[in-house]
Amino acid sequence: MIILAIIIALLLVLASGIPVAIGLGIVGLGAAWLMDGSSAFMTMPQTIYASTNSFLLTAVPLFILMSEILRRAGVTEILFDTVTKWLGHLPGGLGVSAVVTSAIGASITGSSVANAASMAIVAAPPMIERGYDRKFTYGLIAASGTLGILIPPSIPMLLFAAITDESVGKLFAAGMIPGILLALILCGYVVISALTGRSGAALPKASWSERLAQTRKAGFALVLPPIVIGGIYFGFFTATEAAGVGVLYALIISLLIYRTLRIADLLGILIDSLQATCMILLLIAGSMILGHVVTTLQVSQDLMVLIQAYDLPAWGFILAMMAMLFILGCILEVISVIYIVVPILYPVLITLGIDPIWFAVLFIVNMEIALITPPVGMVLYVITGIVQRPVSEVIAGVLPFVGLLFIFLFLLILVPSLTMTLPTIIN
Fold this sequence. Notes:
It is built from 22 helices and no strands. It is mainly alpha-helical. Its main location: membrane.
């Protein structure tokens, strides 16, 4: 009953227009005060400090900085031009190129919002010029943009690891095959749309010399994901060290090789990265204040009692949690959902014998769906702001892709080996 009251209070506070991070903190502090009185205010500073005092979390601002450097340097455009040289002549070639570029960009940015924003700038105009339907274009870019949090390095996976102490390397490995599979599913949908006359015209076929020249140009950027991810997998450095190496490499290729970035641009890059980092850390702090209250109420134990009372099997628990996460994802930020829900669910997963690595991927895919589902759906509003079209148009275009993502989520539930094969290899 208390949890229901907290949820209602949270919805009312968020409906008032207060930023999510502040709203979480207000509800958490209010609930703590009702339970513990004024003494609650004494412990909250320690809770906030503990929530961000993590070496692993240092990787988050570094990955954001790396992403911002590459975005400002126009690397996404270089990658898109390269992919279109190879695939643009195929049926639905520009759409397929957008998906493939998003998948490559996901291995660089670690953020779905940044990934979708870059692709909306780079891919949407040429797709519409070649006759692609606007709604289809925006829906495809939104859906493929969500690959940013599934294909490593994924910022939400880093946060999951920070909360649960699970291996970052295993979490990243678990996202690889599902990420590639989802990209192939989206590409297949584009090709089918093209063959049935619902897609735009293909590009002229590029010559081999054009392909090789553009690939050589993109080669420096394409080396970055193997350096970062490979370094983590093979134990050369930690996730935080990998992020630092990624920032250094991004600076080198942007300033010295592509020369699309100037020293004068670095101040703006640092400011934008700082703003994004502060937003994430504020969300973590607000979520941890509320999470502290939820932990004090022993919700995990109550949930286990409920499961035992109804004799709920593991698969039933998974389906129930997927439904709950989808609802939460529609009204809260991904980071907020992670920090509120994961500390509650993790002990239950261990008790029920559910692999946390597998569940983490299901969690992330569920959040991908949330990113393109109203009313919060951050990716929807980012694309709307960039293309300057009504949000209703973007929402209409994304609906078929939401259906595809749900089918993909159930596929991962039914076939756990798609997620667990690589983590098992690196065990």
